[in-house]
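Before relying on records like the one below, remember that each one covers exactly one chain. Contacts with other chains, cofactors or solvent are not represented anywhere in the record.
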Amino acid sequence: MELKTLGLTEYEAKIYKELLRGQRFTAKQLAECSTVPPTAVYPTLQSLRKKNLIQEFSGEQKQFEALDPKIAIPAYMENKKKILERNSEIILQEIEQLKKEKTIPFQKEILSLSLGQKASVAIYENMIKKAKKTIYIIGWRMHKIKDKYTFLHHFKEPIKRKVDVRLILTGGSEKAWELIQAYERAGIKIKYLPLEQDKFTMLIIDGEECKITLKDKTFSEKYNIHVHDTSLSLALEMYFKNCWKKAKNIQKDNKEKKVKTKKR
């Protein structure tokens, strides 16, 4: 049981594992069955209690018992998430203040890495908002609607500013045709390219900034690589343009109810 993935220390994980067996223990009993040094058992129990994972019973000898993990663990993780978010906001504010005060030289990173769908969407929305000339995307499948109509809403403002928005679809031939039509009606140019290794999406704006998302079923989370370097972003824009030349226009095959490609 990988209890340490919850953010518990080695001693906390060992003692909590024993308490999860469903009975009450004294500190002495836990020292004997958990291999945690006797001097460390009681401080560790107090730490777990502060995390609201266990409860303490007074008596001749204090006893300890795990709270219902179905309730305690989600509550603990939610509280930990709130603390991390709060700390993150404070740190970001402090960094911005340091930049203003010029107490530290700021160097722009070439690459930054983030995990998960939430981070991916945040980067997408921020980049789309900043675009001045071009928005190029490759790797979307368009076979499930999910949040694609939300993205379409974000694209409308850049399109009003005459930003050139292009999208290369990949994956199989099954596509949400009504969704594709909605994108085309909004002024987004769409083509299709059946890539052999369809395990990434890429967004490039203005040849200056890029985001690559690696998507593989073997990954527990999506990996988002944010490229801040202009030279590297321009090289990736060249890759997109080459793919655009190879890609084909798409139309609906009414008989098979699939999207098929055609050359114009």
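The chain has a mean pLDDT of 84.
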